[in-house]
Every structure is written in C-alpha cells, then in structure tokens.
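Hi everyone, sorry if this is the wrong subforum. Our group has a chain we'd like a structural model of before ordering constructs, and none of us has done structure prediction before. Sequence below.
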Amino acid sequence: MQEQTLGRRARLRAQTTAEIKAVALKHLSEGGPDAVSLRAIGREMGMSGSAIYSYFETRDALITTLISDIYTSLLDQVEAARDAVAAGDVAGRIMAWGHAVRAWSLANPEGFRLIYGDPVAGYQAPAGGPAPEAAKRACLGLTELAAAAWPHARATQPDTGHQWADFSPALAATVREHLPDLPPAAVALALRLWGRMHGLISLEVYGHLGPQTGDPAKLYHAELLDLVRSLNLTPENS
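Answer:
Right subforum, don't worry. Here is the predicted structure as tokens:
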C-alpha cells in the first residue's frame, strides 16, 4: 500500500511539473522570456505560492529547466534529420541539419529566442550553463559535420593560423577528446557553419527577413547550397 501511495504521489508530482512547464511555455509564447513568473503560473493553476515553490524553488530553476527541455528538443530533431541521410552524403547531412534547425526554429520561435536571443532579465544560469548536455551535443554535432567535410574543404579554406588557444577551454577540450585528429582550423569551420545557418534563421524568426522576400525558404536553401559547395561538396539532391 505504501509503495502504491508513493507511486501515485510521484505520478501526480510529474503531472503537476509538466503542467507548470506547459503554462510557463504559454506565458513565454505570449509575453517573451521576461513574462515567466512562478507567482503568475501559480495563480493560473490555482496553486498557492508555497505549493508552486515546492516544485521549482526559484524562477531561475524553472527557466533552466525550460532551456534544457527546449534545447534538447531542438537537438533531437536535428540529429534525427541528419541521421536519416546516409553517412557518406556529407553535403546532404549538413543540409539536413540546417533545414531541421530552421524548421524547429519557425515552429518554436519563443524557444529559439530563449536559447539564442537576449538574456532573460535577472536570470542567473547555473555553473556550466543551463543545458550542458544539449550544448555538448550541438557542439559535437556541428564539429562532426565539419570533420566529415574537412578532407574536401581543407585546400580551399583560408589560412588564418587558428590555434587551440583561440577557442574556449571547454570547446577545445570537448573536441580534442572526441575528435583528437581534428585541427583547430576545422573547429573554426564548424563555428562558421553554425554562423551561416543561424544568420538567416535569426533574421526570419525576429521578423526582419519577411518584408524583404516572399520566399525565405528558397533563400535559406540557396544559402545551404552555397555553403556546401564552398566546402567542395556536391549535394546529391539539390
């Protein structure tokens, strides 16, 4: 009986936690990151302040959880898109990653803003960042794409003399652990891939691109084609 009671309590707590996060995401969608408030969420759910604080001790704890959940959902989607393309089709895997990032971002604009936009006012991230595992997956995913492209792209890349000291210690350590033969120049390439994918998406999410073109999807696809061709790769299906 005691085990059944504990199991029921755990299920109820999980359900309430999920509802709190769902209401927080609604507030995020309606008013942006600064609209997330534990007291406002509690009022909407009919919970007392003490009750909701028993689930999340602080607003920062809730925001950290939201960032982790949202970032993880992004990585789940882009990794699935990449892995649906044959490993030998490097251009296709890069383009699949890029298109999946855009699709997710347009479907989750407030989530994109929470991860990549201006910092939430007053928010203090925990040591190591709010979503270290998702951030590591993103870092390795892009760097692995750059590593696969590197044998084709190396000859045409600018000789900028990149050294490991040019990157954050955490990034350098992660790459050197998982891809020990990759030179610093290829890590720089991974960051540039990220920048080219992110740039047009950011303009579109923030509403700057729409007034300039009636077909931002075509523009983004052209950017990805230009990106992979700049790496001496030929898309199998352009």
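For your construct planning: The chain has ten helices and no strands. Residues 109 and 206 are 8 Å apart (CA to CA).
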